[in-house]
Amino acid sequence: MFLTDDEKRMRDGAEGDAVAAAMDLLIRYGAALDAPRLCDIRNVAGTMTQPSPVKARLVAEGGWDKAFAVINLDSDADLTIPPMRVPTCQLQHGFGPDSVDIVPYPRANVDLQSDAESFYGRHGVNILATCTPYQVGNLPLRGEHCAWMESSAVIYANSVLGARTNCEGIASTGAASLTGKVPCCGNHLEENRLGTHLVSVSGIHVESFQDWGMLGYFAGGIAGEDHPVIVGDISRPDLTELKHFGAAAATSGGVEMYHIPGITPEAPTLEAAFGPGAAVPEAVVYGPAERQAMYATLNEIGSSPDVDFVLLGCPHASVDQVRQAAAALEGRSLSAGTELWIMVPRALREIADRSGYTAVITRAGGRVLTDSCPAMSRTAPAGTRVFATDSAKQAHYLPAILGIEAWFGTTEECVDAAVTGRWRGELRP
Ligand code: F3S
User: Fold this and answer.
1) 315 cis-preceded (ω within 30 degrees of 0)
2) Under 8 Å between Cβ of 227 and 260
3) What is the pLDDT of residue 231?
4) Mean pLDDT of each 10-residue bin along the chain, 429 residues long
5) What is the SS3 assignment for 260?
6) Is residue 178 within 8 Å of 17, Cβ to Cβ?
7) Ligand 1 atom nearest to CA at 315
8) Which residues' Cβ are closer than 6 Å to ligand 1?
9) Dihedrals φ, ψ of 138, to 5°?
10) How many other CB atoms are there within 10 angstroms of residue 128's CB atom?
11) Longest Cα pair distance anywhere in the chain, in angstroms?
12) What's residue 72's pLDDT?
């Protein structure tokens, strides 16, 4: 792999042992990926503060420098970690101190994470604590090279913002944060960003939040790790619908990029989505039967109508989603024995608080929670057997993670389940 003089200097230790270890990792990683060179980046979204038993042991042995060296740099060397070289943010992690007594999450994890936030804050990591950094100020520009983790954020960055990132890991984002470099391959290269599969919506109209999620789940199954292009009978989506669509496509498949001609920035036309002069593949139709099949798949783990737990906000909710939930809960109370959690970026909860939405939800018995989610922290209200959600991603993962039943429906159906304790959802035309 070609290295610039500056990269060779870092590799050879001119900026300290930790930066040298980071560069060594990137060189090994780049070679494995067959990357011709490294990209300059100034935007890292990774995870350093997420608590784990291994992290707790490493911190006990050698402090946070040791934990970062082993987990984020794949190095057993005795390193002193310098400040981040480029803007770096922490994605979602565990629950914070204000969730104690609400969420059954180990107090030791809360304390370890608080300690981590203090260390990484001093090293220049912005503790955004959300899977949607693009909702709270981390908005890379079109064409900007980044090093991001979190599949739902990566697909949003590539497709909606037109930024360029592969789906990175804990070690590669750690190394990127100390060097401002990442292997230049995959989604970083223009020629790898074109559409590969055509999905045509026909016989139905995709407009609702729920329908965008089901369409994403279908597109991910069709495209796998490639790039679906969506055409046909769709309404112009907003941030929340594209957030849901992308998260679902990255869940049923490994989609990191998609195009919607006339809507997403790199596909002004269908021709541009596949590249000038390239043949447009035969369309795979998403119609009434496919929509029904997606709904059935996302509800196949649901059997008992008695709902213990309702989860909204996966990916983390926008302010508008919190406002909608508050409107649906206004003047109502949750059923005894049923809990409702809405996951939201911590910075947006401040807005929800000031707008009065949190108070409405709390009065009804619900919770507006931050930093994490049930799938991420492997936790739900004690005794949960059946949960309901409006998120295709959470419906896909949480039953396997916690061994519980799942219902997938509209936000309104989920709120209704929280209020009545019963699942009464159905697929409407
Ligand atoms: Fe975010 Fe958790 Fe969903 S991290 S994307 S809310 S699974």
Assistant:
1) yes
2) no
3) 98
4) 98 98 98 97 98 97 98 97 98 97 97 98 98 98 98 98 98 98 98 98 98 98 98 98 98 98 98 96 98 98 96 98 97 97 98 98 98 97 97 97 97 98 96
5) coil
6) no
7) 5
8) 92, 131, 152, 247, 314-316, 343, 373, 375-376, 393-394
9) -95, 90
10) 23
11) 65
12) 98
- The b/e string for 23-32 (b: 16+ C-beta within 10 A; e otherwise) is bbbbbebbee
Tokens standing for 260? Answer: 């919607």
Give the pLDDT score at 138.
98
**pLDDT at 75 (0 to 100):** 97
Angle between helices 209-223 and 239-252 (to 10 degrees): 30
What is the structure's pLDDT at 372? 98
Residue found by looking up tokens 């480029």 in the block = 86
**Are the beta carbons of 299 and 305 closer than 8 angstroms?**
no
Reading phi first (left if > 0) and then psi (alpha if -120 to 50, else beta), residue 2 is in beta
**Cα 247 to middle of ligand 1, angstroms:** 9
CA atoms within 13 A on the CB side of 312: 33
Ligand 1 probe mutation, 373, 387, 389, 402, most atoms within 8 A of CB: 373
Which residues 6+ apart lie within 8 Å of 75 measured at CB? 21, 24, 25, 69
Q: 49, exposed or middle or buried, with CB in 10 Å at 0-12, 13-18, 19+? A: buried
Task: Report H helices in 124-183.
Answer: 151-156, 170-179
pLDDT at 164: 98
Within 10 A of 403 (CB to CB), how many other CB atoms are there?
Answer: 10
**Which of 347, 158, 345 minimizes the C-alpha distance to 246?**
158
Q: 320 is written with which tokens?
A: 């508008």
Task: Give dist(CA 251, CA 263) in Å, integer.
Answer: 22
Chain centre to alpha carbon of residue 414: 21
Say what the pLDDT of residue 45 is.
Answer: 98
